[in-house]
Write a structure and sequence with these properties.
By secondary structure, this protein is mostly helical. The protein has one domain (about 1-80). The protein has helices at about 1-10, 20-30, 35-40, 45-55, 60-80.
Length: about 80
Amino acid sequence: MVCLLWHNQQSTINPSFGTDLEHFLASLLALDEAQRLVLLKTKSSKEIAQIQAHLENLPLAQQIPIKKAIKQILEELDTV
């Protein structure tokens, strides 16, 4: 099922996200931490910024795991 979710995300999310961002975030929340990191690493800086901007529309409990993953990715980029 996780592979199916990941495949669906890849096929429905384009670089500009558009109205699919809410669906993407819901799918992102369904993944475990490692899978979330892998998927977020495929996104551009612009896409990450769009995700961060949209997080405020989610309940805090849903924001935390995504913010944590984004923070980890950004920290990894700083060390490269």
